[in-house]
């Protein structure tokens, strides 16, 4: 057997069952080898280094090639830097990077993280952020800060807080209890509960059918997700937004928002509206921070939170 990866997998499986102490040491060794290779690229930054880059280049160009939600969770670093440097801050979106899904998972974009259609949906929202000078598609422009380094840096992506991952590779820390996303509220939804639930990140012990007793719920998300939820909530309305800027305006203006660990919740979290998060037990990597935030693992607290918020 000459395949190095296959040999490592075989060795890992052997030690896992024969000697657990040796297995842990072996996993640490593999991790260290991976990180040592990553660190040789010398691409981890500090705030002072970023300030030097901004002074030298008279701009900061940020690259992001990830999912739409990952882009929203990367914005706190850019917003914080807008207070640290006085240069244009430009976000460049790299398209069609491969997406690896866990077995049994599906994604609206299938096998890529960001395509042209989704970039066109998110761009109006990003263009509306006061701390961003521009948002464009990446076409080999010079890059100062890569906001997807966390994918190579050995950071466990099934836990922790997505919004902090870029803190580790830039040396920039933002206050995540404060809004980092801004949208004009659509007051037409002031009395509505906005709901979003993707097919991924579903807590299997949670049942949404109790929401059928509420007559003010509007679903945002793709049609297939809406049709799935409507089976449990027959009176559910569906809003098909024209872009993510409109989605943010609806969420900003609603009574409160309910969602799982999918893109619409990233908007609610960034806006700091009243929001309720369905935490996914197998990958709790979205964290509610700051005022107006609620999260749940179990059915009884979920129903109680919704009942209380709907009173207001």
Q: Can you characterise this structure?
A:
The chain is α/β, with parallel strands linked by helices and 312 residues long. It folds into two domains: 47-170; 187-311, Rossmann fold (3-Layer(aba) Sandwich), CATH 3.40.50. 38% of the residues lie in helices and 13% in strands. Strands 7-6-5-8-9-10 form a six-stranded parallel beta sheet, sandwiched between helices. Strands 3-2-1-4 form a four-stranded parallel beta sheet. Helix 7 (223-230) links the parallel strand 6 and strand 7 (237-239). The longest helix has 20 residues, at 20-39. It starts with a helix and ends with a helix.
CATH fold-type name of the largest domain: Rossmann fold
> What percent strand?
5-15%
CATH homologous group name of the largest domain: Glycogen Phosphorylase B
Number of helices: 10
How large is the radius of gyration? Answer: 21 Å
Oligomer: single chain
Which percent range fits the helix content?
25-40%
- What's the number of domains? 2
Q: Could you give the distance between the termini?
A: 66 Å
| Strand element count | 10
Largest sheet: 6 strands, parallel
- Structural class by helix and strand composition: alpha/beta
Mean pLDDT: 90
| Shape estimate | globular
Please give the order of strands in the largest beta sheet.
Answer: 7-6-5-8-9-10
Q: Strand-and-helix sequence, N→C?
A: HHHEHEHEEHEEHEHEHEEH
CATH architecture of the largest domain: 3-Layer(aba) Sandwich
Name of the CATH class of the largest domain: Alpha Beta
Q: Unreliable runs, pLDDT <50, ≥5 residues? A: none
């Amino acid at each position: 057997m000459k395949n190095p990866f296959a040999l490592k997998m075989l060795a890992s499986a052997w030690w896992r069952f024969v000697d657990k102490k040796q297995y842990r040491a072996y996993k640490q060794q593999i991790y260290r080898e991976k990180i040592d290779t990553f660190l040789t690229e010398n691409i981890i930054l500090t705030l002072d280094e970023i300030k030097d880059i901004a002074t030298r280049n008279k701009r900061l160009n940020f690259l992001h090639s990830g999912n739409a939600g990952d882009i929203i969770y990367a914005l706190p670093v850019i917003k914080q830097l807008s207070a640290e440097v006085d240069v244009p801050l430009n976000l460049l979106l790299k398209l069609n990077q491969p997406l690896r899904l866990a077995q049994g998972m599906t994604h609206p974009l299938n096998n890529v993280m960001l395509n042209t259609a989704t970039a066109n949906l998110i761009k109006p929202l990003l263009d509306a952020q006061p701390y961003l000078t521009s948002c464009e598609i990446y076409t080999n422009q010079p890059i100062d800060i890569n906001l997807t380094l966390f994918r190579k840096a050995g950071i466990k992506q099934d836990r922790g807080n997505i919004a902090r991952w870029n803190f580790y590779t830039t040396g920039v820390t933002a206050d995540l209890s404060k809004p980092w996303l801004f949208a004009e509220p659509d007051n037409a939804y002031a009395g509505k509960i906005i709901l979003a639930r993707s097919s991924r990140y579903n807590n299997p012990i949670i049942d949404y059918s109790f929401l059928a007793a509420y007559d003010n719920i509007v679903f945002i998300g793709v049609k297939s997700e809406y049709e799935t939820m409507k089976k449990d909530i027959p009176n559910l309305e569906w809003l098909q937004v024209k872009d993510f800027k409109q989605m943010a305006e609806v969420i900003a203006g609603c009574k409160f928002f309910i969602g799982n660990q999918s893109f619409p919740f990233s908007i609610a979290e960034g806006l700091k509206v009243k929001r309720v998060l369905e935490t996914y037990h197998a990958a709790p990597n979205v964290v509610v921070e700051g005022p107006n935030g609620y999260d749940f693992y179990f059915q009884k607290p979920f129903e109680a939170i919704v009942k209380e918020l709907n009173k207001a």
